[in-house]
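Here comes a specimen:
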Amino acid sequence: MSGMIQQEQQFNDVLLDKLVAHFGVTNIKKDGGYILRDGSLLNLNRSDLSNRQYHRAVAELLPKEMHGACDEITIVNLMTATGIIRYEARGRVHVATKPTQPQRRKLFEIMKYSEHSYRVLVSDTNAATIGDKNFKSPQAHELLQYFEGCFSGNQQQYRDDEFGISKEQDDIIFTFRPAQRQIGRYQPSTRTFTIMPEFEGSMALFKEKTAKLLQEESNVV
């Protein structure tokens, strides 16, 4: 098992080296697009209108097995594998792994003195949103507490609009919409909920949606 983990880490390191070799790094905040684990910025030339790169250009360099149902999931797969953080200098941050101290320090530098407020999204490894909060000139401890809450599981908040339910004969199917995946099932005959282990954190939302649907159906009757 440790050998497999080591191989995976080596693969992720090679992938990160490939991105750095292709795009380079920069100290200019408005040119970066990702914060690497050491706090440096992947250079997407975002301030150069003729040469600026978009996040899709990063996704295109990834191996096919990392591509998801949409670009957003592909980028989350990248962030999960490498630990990098996606950001836009005009007000958006997207995180999929717990930030390192150098990354938090860089985020603080970017956000603290910006005229923009920042929407900070946190995704789990499935690309499901577990945190969504706006910050304006935050204190360093505020960011730390927010990330700690999201990744410890204490403050995870799954977005209602990313999950849906539908009927399949008598059963109720729970779907993760961004990936178009069926992830859970409720069987009324046995009152049994089953869900894919990696989505276990969304079970409460599944039960809530199911109860609401059953209540609506009973009202119709």
